[in-house]
Predict the 3D structure of the following.
Amino acid sequence: MSDVKTHQGTCHCGAVAFEVDTALDGLMECNCSHCYRKGFVLAFAPRASFRLKSGEADLGEYRFNKHAIAHQFCKTCGVQPFGYGTMPDGTETVAVNVRTLNDVEPWSWTAERVDGRSF
Ligand SMILES: [Zn+2]
């Protein structure tokens, strides 16, 4: 288990900025039709550990399948930095796209591959 740190993230154009407190443990890559297309490497954190700093009005929302996850993307640059969801136990959660965290060195992480395509 690594230490919990505050990480800053942005979309590509910078309109959307956020920070999240996470240890970046349990990173996940998924092969479902959505995650795979967008190339996500995801970190999950409680919604209370996440703060949107700017860009509320710049965010669009995409939902598909059971519409359980509110995927948030920047309407200007198209980058999806995070999505809001709820764990099976009811915990409000945020799934952060690790590739949008400014202080995480590219390819410094390892992520578990999850077979979301078969779910
Ligand atoms: Zn943007």
Notes: The radius of gyration is 13 Å. The longest helix spans residues 33-38. The longest strand covers residues 5-10. The helical segments are 33-38.
